[in-house]
Amino acid sequence: MTISPDSIVFWQWGIFSLNATIVLTWLVMGLLTLFSWLVTRRLSADTELSRWQNLLEVLITGINDQIRQVSHQEPGRYLPFVGTLFLYIAMSNLLNVVPGYMAPTGSLSTTTALAICVFIAVPIYGVAAEGSVNYLKHYVKPSWLMLPFNIIGEISRTIALAVRLYGNIMSGTVIVAILLSLTPYLFPVVMQLLGLLTGMIQAYIFAVLAMVYIASATSVHQHTAQSKS
Question: CA-CA distance, 149 to 134, in Å (whole number)?
Fold first, then answer.
């Protein structure tokens, strides 16, 4: 039983290898790019919109509303990053209905890469909102003794992001494989549907947690600006 797409290697030369995780990741990115191009090439402001433009506007509106609710800020600057995280993870998990496909999010290397993106994005947004000096002061509040603990906290939540997504996707794959070997008809279908639901929930949770971490890095700036006004 293959648990992770990392174990499926298509090509290898020395230390370099091309495994299923890389291939399927590029497949998902290609499908998202193609979908985006097809939907946006004929955008219209008329009252009668195509079903694909309606779907796109519903997605964008929904993501914007969630960002606004979580951060209490305007979502414009955060939408590209958080929206991309959600759409990539959601598409990766939804394609599990395709026979022979394995979600790249079932690989710890993929989820770690996504978590590292969040780890890097948090200080970038924080510095952009507050300035480098004010942002770095967060690590030494209320005293310098908190510096190592705050750094450990940043690293531990990054690890938690990666492991949470990987564990949920991988466990769903294992359960479906076990049920398929025991009862090859009804139960695997039910579990597959449950896995799709779980995949969408995990995409939502990952995106929301990323926004929570970013919002915590920029909230002081927002509160300061509001108090001055």
Answer: 18
